[in-house]
Amino acid sequence: MKVLLIGSADSIWIKKIIELTFIPFGDDVTVYTDSNTAYADYYRSNNIKIIMQKPGKSPFSTLLLNFRHMLKKYDLVHVHYVTSLAATLGMINSVFSRRFVLTFWGSDLFRVEKAKKPVRLALNFCSAVTMSTAEMRDRFRKDYGRSFDRKLKRAVFGVNGFDTLRSVSPDKTALRKKYGIPENKTVVSVGYSCKKEHQHLPVLSAIRDLPEELRSGIHILLRMTYGCSDKSYPDKVKKAVSETGCTYSIYESFLSDEDTAELTLLTDIFIHAQVTDAKSATLCEHLYARCFVLNPSWIKYSDFENRVFYQEYDSFEQLKGMLADVLRSLSDEDIQKRLAANTAAICKLCSWDSFIPQWRAVYTGKKLSRRR
Question: Rounded to the nearest 5 degrees, what angle is found at the Cα of 20, between the Cα atoms of 46 and 34?
């Protein structure tokens, strides 16, 4: 199958889609992208062709310069992360191709104020529209109506970090020593990037307002290695965390997959507070690692209901009280049993092996029972 992907080659999700749902089937893959640095060696070694949007050229000019790629008559044109531009480029290519798929990632729905006319036009031409959650489907219908329901398909991104979590040492004593975290403190992780949408400031304010006897037993862990669009934001977070009265670690430089997995295993409580989210892989990894997850009620994971143990808060004031309760009860035997059960449950719900057949069905229009 000849495939054209339109999306960022530097995204780990694009790499994983290629690695797990195309390469094992012998597909011929080309990626149209505006950047190709993070995984260039991987693509080169696996014969993945890259069409680069040239600096100083508009995407449409670049497309015309690469017209010969369009004439290949792709079996599949697949847009990942549906912007007006990406949808339009995919639609143009689809004229010459057999199948055209649009895949929404989450923020391309939730953080868009209103339906986009170019996207609506592309929806009329596409073969299928994929999204990973019921909440995304509901938002799509709100913006674009129900006339495209027959095209809606569920195709889920698996969680990439489970294998790495299994491969690193689970010895928390050694890991605490490695990362300079006091042995007698509860590690509370807040968010996982430098994006202000993670709402570090109100979370840290809630921690600051806890009783001193609880704050003195907390070590806050902040991963702020990417996503910083506001240069002043990291300083605001540093000031806020310094005012909590807790010890803390802030990571701003690159973390390897192994480093990230070790910090996840070190975490006792993970506080998720994003404004919107489709399905956070990092949240899933913390559930897998038996962390106690506190998730905002404005982000729903319907797939997890009655299957995975975590707690929801409605406001940052409620978060403060809930966090205090969790800190006092974290070592209870029943709590620990429920956290331990999350590992198998979340693996079943979120592993790539569960979802590859979904993607292949979308690509081909029919379900494949197994990989070739």
Answer: 60
* Alpha-carbon gap, residue 122 to 114, rounded angstroms: 16
Give the predicted TM-score (pTM) of the model: 0.79
Q: What is the pLDDT of residues 204-251, one digit of tens each?
A: 999 999 999 999 999 999 999 988 888 899 999 999 999 999 999 999
SS3 annotation, the chain:
CEEEEECCCCCHHHHHHHHHHCHHHCCEEEEEECCCCCCHHHHHHCCCEEEECCCCCCHHHHHHHCHHHHCCCCCEEEEECCCHHHHHHHHHHHCCCCEEEEECCCHHHHCCCCCCHHHHHHHHHCCEEEECCHHHHHHHHHHHCCCCHHHEEECCCCCCCHHHHHHCCCCHHHHHHHHCCCCCCEEEEECCCCCHHHCHHHHHHHHHCCCHHHHCCEEEEEECCCCCCCCCHHHHHHHHHHCCCCEEEEECCCCCHHHHHHHHHHCCEEECCCCCCCCCHHHHHHHHCCCEEEEECCCCCHHHCCCCCCEEECCHHHHHHHHHHHHHHCCCHHHHHHHHHHHHHHHHHHCHHHHHHHHHHHHHCCCCCCCC
Stretch 122-139: mean pLDDT: 93
The model's pLDDT over 278-320, given as tens digits with 9 standing for 90+, comes to: 568 899 999 999 999 999 999 988 889 889 999 999 999 999 9
The predicted pLDDT at position 357 comes to 93
